[in-house]
Amino acid sequence: MKIDPDSTKDLSAQIAEAIRAEIVGGQLIVDQRLPSEAELADHFEVSRPTVREALKRLAAQSLIRTQRGATGGAFVNRLRFEDAYDQQVTTASLLLSMNAVSFDVACEARYALERACAPLAAQRRTPDHLATMRAEIHRQCQPGLTDEAFCASDVTFHRALVDGAGNKVLSYQLAGAVEAMQPLMNMITFTARSREAIVALHTDIADAVEAQDAAKTDATLIKLEAYTRELAHSVVTARAQKATSKEQTSA
Questions:
Q1: Please, are residues 58 and 13 in contact by the beta-carbon 8 Å criterion?
Q2: Are 54 and 16 in contact (CB under 8 A)?
Q3: Where residue 59 sits, what CATH number does that domain have?
Q4: SS3 category, 67
Q5: Domain ranges, residue 178
Q6: pTM over 0.90
Q7: CA angle (163, 167, 168) in 5-degree steps
Q8: How far apart are alpha carbons 157 and 80 in whole angstroms?
């Protein structure tokens, strides 16, 4: 494990990256105890607080865990897909917000990824996945459901479809698409959309998945994407017209 003392990059970040590389490369294996803070400080020729900060970075990524007591210390963690979902969602959300990704780009990516899961979901979905989808459809039909609750239900419905593919790698990769892109699109379209139309499309998707009809599942997702784009464009147009009208009134 090495760092570059002449680099302008933060030393704790360099140390974290060096240890991370050892974990990813298999030099440090699951449940192996890392050298102590003092040993790491001597190895990297830095202070113990710098090492401590590096270990905090690794713990935040769920790459290590710490234990107290005589047999305690920092240990290589077994990173599970479920533990990494939140990081994937956070990263996707930041990328979308910081890079001003357009609605059309986000929409295209989000549905292209979900449609890749559709054939597998139609083939492998379990009764639990179907039950979740049906439960969310029922929830979406409830009168008095807030926009926030409807959006959350929308995400849960599509999460069940993705998880129904029975592939943990796909579920992890699509965590950002469903749980970051979907809320972003909901924020833009919720004022214009028809809940009845969304429920009808969701019902068609659930029916197709239950019937193990991959083609119909895909076709309905295409319809949902077209409807989502149509809503977004209508919202943008309405906002532009309102702004123009306001300017004309002010003039």
A1: no
A2: yes
A3: 1.10.10.10
A4: strand
A5: 81-250
A6: no
A7: 85
A8: 23
Residue 40 Cα to chain centre, angstroms: 34
One domain for residues 70 and 88: no
Tens-place pLDDT, residues 77-106: 887 777 777 778 777 777 777 777 788 888
Q: Which residues contact 57 (CB under 8 A, 6 or more apart)?
A: 12, 13, 16
Place of tokens 């494990």: 1
Instruction: Give the torsion sign (CA, 62, 68, 74, 77).
Output: negative
Low-confidence ranges of the chain (pLDDT < 50): none
In this structure, which long-range contacts are made by residues 178-183, counting pairs with CB atoms below 8 Å and at least 24 apart in sequence? Answer: 178/110, 178/114, 179/85, 179/89, 179/92, 179/155, 180/89, 180/92, 180/93, 180/96, 181/92, 181/96, 181/106, 181/107, 181/109, 181/110, 182/110, 182/154, 182/155, 182/158, 183/151, 183/155
